[in-house]
Amino acid sequence: MSSSIKSTNIVEVHHHVTCEARADLNRHRGGVLWLTGLSGSGKSTIAMELERQLFNKRWQVYVLDGDNVRHGLCSDLGFSPGDRTENIRRVGEVAHLFAKAGLLVVTAFISPYRADRERVRQMGPAQFHEIHVATPLDVCEQRDPKGLYEKARRGEIPDFTGISAPYEPPEAPELRLNAENCTIDRTLTTLVAYVERTFALPSDQVSVGHVAS
Amino acid sequence: MSSSIKSTNIVEVHHHVTCEARADLNRHRGGVLWLTGLSGSGKSTIAMELERQLFNKRWQVYVLDGDNVRHGLCSDLGFSPGDRTENIRRVGEVAHLFAKAGLLVVTAFISPYRADRERVRQMGPAQFHEIHVATPLDVCEQRDPKGLYEKARRGEIPDFTGISAPYEPPEAPELRLNAENCTIDRTLTTLVAYVERTFALPSDQVSVGHVAS
Questions:
Q1: Which B residues, 45 through 104, put their C-beta within 8 Å of a C-beta on chain A?
Q2: According to CATH, what is the number of the domain A24-200?
């Protein structure tokens, strides 16, 4: 699918609410936390638990994952290289829209291609943090929580990342989680601290009464 | 573009944060306010002003409009009937994702086809409210804020809604705004009252300390 801009005669209409005003209301900046890793590495489990913990701290946070996107926005796409690229492009655009709306969005997609992830990083003004869920292939295959590796080994799933399709690990992710050496609790403690350090507003910048002009 | 589901072997991972918990935090439900109307009818102006006013009441609200979507998520699409349908399908899916994340999302798209709008209504569990910005064609053409009608009359823009492409007005929208008979202020007063009546939590349901279990 081409990514050249076919839309013409589109005139920009500006939001009257700034990103700064949204951050001030929410007490944290919007941004994208992009989890990447093999199937079974723990991305979705980590993302959903992170969402729960941040929500309990009253953050505006939302997880985009394969399930809520593959059944909807990207239901027309399969797993060929071109379709994977288009899938990640659309998810990236949506993630940046959420970030502009002030949310911290956590994405949980295998997103195997380095170039696709890099394109998402470049898409928006929002902060993009690449988090590598670096569980090794043999551990993922041993876990095989969905039975997919077994099917892939039997040749029943074509283009399966790590088996019959490539995974290109990030070279310089903002954070690397070696989840196989850690309990989920310790992984989450690391991640929540990272998020707060990166996206929370310093408390002296918080002025609850702030409104848009 | 096909809308059949090509994705297989997708296993659902559930959010631990419910829509009810999000509504409780935000003091309003998430939902979709779908503005439809001709080019120049006032959709974007109304949407952006509504966003400002609701934000100032501390609502989680975000406008999706042609500009922030046609340059990004839908940059591969033009204005043929098929591309318009796919454009509205994607925007609809994104709007429902925002609503699931707890936001009131306001969309400002011509969205000329009844069937496309009806498909968006059916997409999600979120409340979908169709708002017809019912400014008549002759008023829109007289305003012509972007000079597009003039270009379209000269044949310089193909498939221009109202001139060389159809607009199918909603038969039973949740709300119809006759913006040409009203000042923008009065239109906004009507709309804000409608939104509060429809999406705000009754104050006795608000319990600020509520957290997800």
A1: 45, 48-49, 51-52, 55-56, 58, 60, 62-68, 70-79, 83, 90, 93-94, 96-98, 100-103
A2: 3.40.50.300
